[in-house]
Amino acid sequence: MANTLSLHGQGLKLDSRADIEPLLAGIDPTKIEEIHLGGNTIGVDASVALAEFLSKATNLKIADLADIFTGRLITEIPLALTAICNALVDKTSLIELDLSDNAFGGRSVDPMVPFLTNNRSFQVLKLNNNGLGPVGGKVLADALFESARISKSKGEKSNLRTVICGRNRLEDGSAPSWAEAFAAHGTLTEVRMPQNGIRMAGITALARGLAKNPGLQFIDLQDNTFTDDGQLKGVEAWTESLASWPELTALNLSDCVLSGEGELPQLVTAIAEGSNPKLHTLQLQNNNLEAETFALFAEHISGNLKGLKLLELQWNDAEDDDVSLETVRLSMKQRGGKLIVDDEEEEEEEEEAEEEEEKEEVKEEQEAVLASTIEEPTPKKPDTTDELADLMSKVEIQ
């Protein structure tokens, strides 16, 4: 198992160096591969001390720093973030950085620019729910573009694989910059940008930028807008780009206004006719889909869509006795897949997913127990004070 330092969910308020140093005492930073600090709040002085620890973490692979600034002032966050990002900038071992659920806002993104520009080793970037806005989003996208430009100038291939940047109000103001960054890297396999208020112009730009990433497997653009007052440029651009993603397995275009009322979306037609043969998950909730679309799925479900395992169609205009949907449901059931049309089916799917997650957690716990019986940890010297013992009890090392 990875050597992990975890304070996750402890609810600690770490203001000063004195608050955090006892939690790091006795831990060899060179052996730490993962650090999880979410669910605590870290001030400037504590962040500086944390940065000193991180600067020595030469084998760090995962830096989970989501939700670490709750209650902090807008004047504090840039200073704390600067210290942390500067400590990570030269980490060639780093694979994933998660800074989700931190209320940066557009005014606090500049400290991330040197890291995004100069660390070209990381593969996964998670920036979900940061309140970036179009200005902040553009700053970060431009930094990623510059990173790709530098890599190309050195004859190197980008390592970036995953970008998750949802619930950030990116809007059309930053979408072209993200599109340029995605196109410049060309190596993405997963892009998730739901609930960003991106409208047709931005959606069109994103389609063209993402089309330069032939390895894309997962795309989530839920709750953005593909059409505008009957105009279909966004839909047309995405329909053209579908064939650029032969490896695509999961596509979420729920709540995206894919057509006018009563129209058969050309994007859905292309998918049904086999634009992405490896597709196994298709989410099209709340898109005003009607009987003609369901008939299209019924026609192709056993042919071009034979690999589909999950189809979500909630909150569309479906009749209870729609024959086409029954055809789709039966075909998917036979292959071990599932069609979800109503809330009850969605709840069942969520329950099944929770059960699978619980099974996985149990499995991980069993593996941890087995590992501990194989290799006993080196006994630690007793702490000198009750206060220090209490602090150390909050640190989880796996």
Automatic annotation (TrEMBL):
Protein name: RNI-like protein
InterPro entries reported for this sequence: Leu-rich_rpt, LRR_dom_sf, RanGap
This protein's GO CC annotations: cytosol; nucleus; perinuclear region of cytoplasm
Top-rank taxon, per record: Eukaryota
Comp. bias intervals (Acidic residues): 342-359
UniProt entry keywords in alphabetical sequence: GTPase activation, Leucine-rich repeat, Repeat
Region (Disordered) residue spans: 336-398
Pfam families: LRR_6
Organism in which the protein naturally occurs: Guyanagaster necrorhizus
Cross-referenced PANTHER family: RAN GTPASE-ACTIVATING PROTEIN 1
UniProt GO BP: nucleocytoplasmic transport
Membrane-spanning parts: none
Single GO molecular function: small GTPase binding
